[in-house]
Amino acid sequence: KSVIMKPINIASIPADGIGPEVISVGIEVVQAVCARNSDIDLNFTHFDWGSDYYKRHGEMMPADGLDTLKTFDAIYFGAVGAPDVPDHVTLWGLRLPICQGFDQYANVRPTKIIAGIDSPLRNAGPGDLDWVIVRENSEGEYSGHGGRAHRGMPEEVGTEVAIFTRVGVTRIMRYAFRLAQTRPRKFLTVVTKSNAQRHGMVMWDEIAAEVATEFPDVAWDKMLVDAMTVRMTLQPDTLDTIVATNLHADILSDLAGALAGSIGIAPTANIDPEGRFPSMFEPIHGSAFDITGKGIANPVATFWTGVQMLDHLGLTNEASRLFTAIEQVCADGILTPDVGGTKTTRQVTDAVLDAIRQLN
Ligand code: ATP
Ligand code: MG
To answer: What GO molecular-function term can you cite, just one (predicted)?
Structure first.
């Protein structure tokens, strides 16, 4: 009766610091939640790329690394960054080439207050903060355009040019409206700074209004980024789906992560919405060398990004079971020290595996 699904192949790149500690247990829980359905054939292939690889080979990944990854259905990524390798090497050597090479132009960051994890917001609990931030991930303020003239001289000038294209803004806006449409509230907030920045930001506002006509069932509003930080802090329940530029969403999602309780729980997905290339799923946090090897890294961000990955692969029942398991374990107070608990990575993982077995 059952139709065997074609194998799903996932590339895992744990990379640096706590990356391997959280990705290894992330794979355990993703596999466990798929175990009930024997039609699902999920395979992980490991790549030892990252800072140690760099120390041996002089590069963070092989020159044909993207060709190798291209054949996979998704990438499960840990973290990059090491104390003894320059930041520009770790950043530009692995993660960014994947994002850019695979045109993962939508960076998607769900944030939610989970029962059991305290928000620094007074009186805020589960239900008061449930957002998805969509970050434009391919252009804007981080386009690398600009330069410096008269370096070191009194008359020195530095420019940092943000590039916004009609194609780039339209596609991220469509993605955000479509995502808002799938959520119960069907509500999108478009963030810009179009009062002070009169070119690209005004274009964002115009394109938002154009794309909005394609989604008559989605309500939307506009916010200036400065006012947005206030609204996120004081009226979190008035927001749902949020779209912003590369820079603005970078800042807003750090704020969002802090308001939800910890950097150790925040997940992120780098999506190629057209499905031409594999998308990449990773915790927002970095390599955290201060806690590497201690066995206390919070695995929840990596589990949650596993939820995003399963969703993206069309395994929506598995995704929602995994999220439920995470919520149960947090609500039971089985937490790592960064969120006020006393448990280890292993103990939190075992609790999530137990919860999955109950749900399966
Ligand atoms: P990078 O340079 O790659 O950003 P980082 O060492 O600055 O990495 P971050 O991930 O940015 O580390 O996090 C800052 C601090 O937050 C870490 O030093 C660590 O103490 C804590 N932290 C981050 N992730 C986790 C986690 N998953 N579990 C527990 N604590 C974490
Ligand atoms: Mg950092």
So the answer is: tartrate decarboxylase activity
69 CA to middle of ligand 1, Å?
26
Answer whether 257 contacts ligand 1 (Cβ < 6 A). Answer: no
For the chain (360 residues), the mean pLDDT of every run of 10, in chain order, is 76 98 98 93 97 96 97 97 91 92 97 92 87 96 92 96 97 98 97 94 97 98 98 96 97 93 92 97 95 98 98 96 98 96 98 96
Choice from 90, 263, 330 to test ligand 1 binding pocket (greatest atom count within 8 A of CB) = 263
Q: How far is the CA of 129 from the centre of ligand 2 (A)?
A: 24
The answer, as to whether pTM is greater than 0.90, is: yes
Measured CA to CA, the distance from residue 126 to residue 116 in angstroms comes to: 9
DSSP structure string for 170-225: HHHHHHHHHHHHHSTT-EEEEEE-TTT--SHHHHHHHHHHHHHTT-TT-EEEEEEH
- Polymer length of the chain: 360
β-pair type (279-283, 267-271): antiparallel
